[in-house]
Amino acid sequence: MTYSRSTPPARALRLLERVLPADVRDALTGDLIETFARTADARGPRAARLRFWGEVLGAVWQCGAWRAALRGRSGLTPAFGLTDDLRYAVRVLRRAPAFAVLCIVTLALAIGPTTAIVSVVDPVLLRPLPYTDPSRLAFIWERDETGRPVTTGYSTVADVRANATLLASVAAVGSWQAILSDPMNPARLTGSRVSWNYFRTLGVMPALGRDFTTDDDRPGHTHVVVLTHGLFTGRFGSNPRVVGSTMTLDGTPYTVIGVLPPSFDDMIAHDAEIFSPLGYVVTQPWACRSCRHLTAVARVRDDVPFERAQAQLNQLSAQLVRAHPTDYPAVGMFLTPMQHEATRASRPALLAILGAAILVLLIALANVVNLQLARGMRRDDEFAVRIALGARPGRLTQQLMAEGLVIAAAGGALGAAFGAAVLPVLVGRLPRTIPRLDAVHLDLPVLAFVALVVLTVAMVTGLVPARGARRRAIDGAALRGGARLTVKAGAATRSTLVVGEVALALLLLASAGLLARSLTNLLAVDPGFDPANLITMRVVSSGPAYQKAAATLDYRGRAIAAVREIPGVLDAATSTSLPLSGDLDRYGITAQDKPLANPALAPYATGYRVNGDFVRTMRIRLLAGRDLTARDARDSAASVVLVSDALARSIWGGESPLGKLVHVPNARAQWADVVGVVGDVRHASLDNDDGRAIYLPEAAWGWANDEAALVVRTRANSAALVRAVRAAVASIDPSQPVTDLRTMDAVVSRSTAQRQLAFALFGAFAVLAMMLAAAGIYGVLAGSVAERTREIGLRGALGATPGNLLMLVVRHGLGLAAVGVVIGLAGALASTRLLRALLFGIGPTDPWMLGGAAAGLFAIAAIACAVPAWRAVRVDPVTALRD
After folding, report:
1. Maximum Cα–Cα distance for the chain, whole Å?
2. Which of 86, 181, 665, 832 has the highest count of CB atoms within 10 angstroms of its CB?
3. If we measure between CA atoms, which residue out of 138, 499, 105 comes closest to residue 307?
4. Residue 799 burial by CB count (10 A; 0-12/13-18/19+): exposed, middle or buried?
5. Pick from 862, 807, 113, 842: which is nearest to 446 by CA?
6. Per-residue model confidence as pLDDT tens digits over 306-364
7. Where are the domains of the chain?
8. Alpha carbon distance 360, 358 (integer Å)
9. CA atoms of 186 and 173, how far apart (whole Å)
10. Which is more confidently placed, 157 or 380?
């Protein structure tokens, strides 16, 4: 038979030469060349070439040389190697399901809460505010007599706007509660009255319609509104025709001119739903310099440092004080960046919680590494055999890192799902005063953080065990029967990790203890009233029927009378202010017999304008004199007041205030007679309040607020009684909404919500950390007992008593715990100072609390030592020596 002169493809031959082992390459190449020649004679050169290529590729694939070639000679090495290693890692972990599940669950329990907390911290503290160039935005505050920042008056805002040349724009904002008149569904809307340039200052434009203009911001021309996106979608079903329509607010028609974008979040009124022009001019009584009820917002020019703008404001303040000395208590203003100011109150708690979550993550990571180390030492024979058969040491590292990546990826995925489930619960517990809660989501940046954590965990859990495994495998200790000679280095690493776990756990336990003690101290503070069996709600009187104060007061009087008729109700009253609710209504009080050269320096007091027996209903103590009476409330010309003990002391010192005359701004009478002294009430918060307050009949005021707090004292707070109270109020005028129905116990609890959340999360993290630390101690001791079985048996054979063996193991475990506790105490003395803003009535280095945390953790460690120690006692010397 004659063969064709055609030759096989040269590239196919070179491929065979490069990738096939020498011992099979020649024989296989010869067979393929013969097959090529026969095919070329029978079917032609083209068909022969195609068949040759197919058989070459098939032969290379079957020999496994194709993947080897790619690993060794092409740029595809990492992908193919990693894929193979991951497959192998999955097979290895499937043979140890208990180990894999324990590692994955440990990581998930740490990654889940951390993911949820990062989801909150990212938009609230880290991301820029959702405005144009937010780094140039700031708040402007005046300075009070004590040097603290306070809100400002409209005339001051007008002067700053006209004279502060380093500010590109200045806007004023005032609070506004509007009643949406709807016979079927009346509602109270929270919003703001703003100067026409407010949204332009922020750099926000409406998504629908238009912004305010200077024509809108004039007295008598302010009946236009801009809606937030939430109100637009919730109340009006996202109907674009709402722009241009009319809605009735407080009995007056308003035209909707615009809708804000979904990303807008007001940094002043976080729950704002609606905005309307301020409509102030400097000639109005309520636009005076001492009428400090407005918040000023400014945009600093792009090329101006904040320090220069601050200096200019201080110069302007000095000029204003010289021109109006009785209107300003002190010289100077504050210019605070909006990003910092908006998150000032929530930053300490959120950063502390984030730090606690990261500590738990580190403890979990140490625990997983410890598990990997223990398991790696049990695989010494496997690694040594692989090294002896020609495996490169780098391959062991690569495969252990692949196992770490599989565990970390599974733990990260489970943790992210856990975090997504926990996140709504966490957001629901956060105080509503925290800004940008609507932007809290498990989004791409948070998932990128989870991915970074997964990669970090994979590297650490792979590299740390791999280092010892490679060294022991290269030494060949396992094959020589000397594996136990190399245990010492691995045990030292594991012990170090356990010490670190104990130290970090002590930090969390001490922090949780401090927060618990602080919360206990705070809740033990006497608020000045009895919150038990006290129901409160907001009652509104809005619309044409209530334009006169007499109509509003009559409505509230009838509501009080209707509520008092309900069986189980002991008393009821209304007040324009409610303790611990966030109301801000303070006046400068001056006494006729204690004249001041500068009235602006008069002590400020919280004002309670009341109807009914408010002091008796709230159970506020009457210290001297008499209470306000029904006659005082009926007489619009009455000029009597009650003062708190703190206000009396700040004005008269040790003198009795009874019969003294005081001036209350905006009251009908120039002077009011002090007829009684009552106990101090915590108004602003349980932990920070000056206690200064003044109580007067609402009829004695210059006008009547369109809403007030109704407080109802009952024998018991049952759900049926709450519904009856609401129904009684609604029966007076069904067109008026009744809102914010809650108990005073809930009001008090809400005032401590931030501390309660911090304590709950720190407590949960501390428990988890203690469990992980105890598991780490147990794991190290259990591994030590298993590795030292022969030594323990030998000691027993030589006469060691069970007590000696027990102390051998317990001493090791408690020694690790003691070192960790000492390091943890040193760290706690330094780090718990960061919790100072969350503590009340206890120092951050309280020795009793730190000592208690150390003792508690040491006791947990002792329990963790018990099982391995008992196992060591039960080792049979004969069996151990024979094995």
Report:
1. 137
2. 832
3. 138
4. exposed
5. 113
6. 999 999 999 999 999 999 988 888 899 999 999 888 888 888 888 888 888 898 898 88
7. 10-74, 148-329, 347-523+753-882, 543-735
8. 5
9. 25
10. 157
